[in-house]
Amino acid sequence: MIALNTSEAGGPVPKCTPNLLPCRIQQDGHAAAKPRYWAPCIAKDGRPEAYFRGRRLEGKEVRIPVGFRGLVVVEGKKTYTCNRVIERQAASDEKSEMDGIDTNGALDDVAAFDEVIVWGHDTVAGTDNSFVRCIDEWVTFAEHMHNSKPSV
């Protein structure tokens, strides 16, 4: 299990809008991009539009569903240990208990978001886009999993 550490300052984390580009960039952190290289705008049809290395990109805003939140996280420096109880079936059909220790990693939140912009080359990312499809399917799966009643 992984623990999530909230902001060390104790206040709200800054808001951001992640951009998922249809290419691989060897960067996984914040990029202080100059407007010359990255200047998304709203096109006449009301959708996000940008040019990246001379290629036209069209964006689709994907909102995080109600009841969920988006977080940008980094690997935390803290680890947590917890005791767990393990039940084993003994040879004599008696249950015995043992204490075990789990070491868990932690993630630190650095920003929060309400929407993600998914970009496509000269076309809007549709329902065939794996990220867009994943948001819909994962939310549906999570709702069914948490709302289902255990069968006897």
TrEMBL record:
Gene3D superfamilies found in the cross-reference section: 2.40.128.680
GO cellular component, one term: ribonuclease H2 complex
Pfam families: RNase_H2_suC
InterPro entries: RNase_H2_suC
GO biological process per UniProt: RNA catabolic process
Name of this chain's protein: Uncharacterized protein
Species in which this protein is naturally found: Heterodermia speciosa
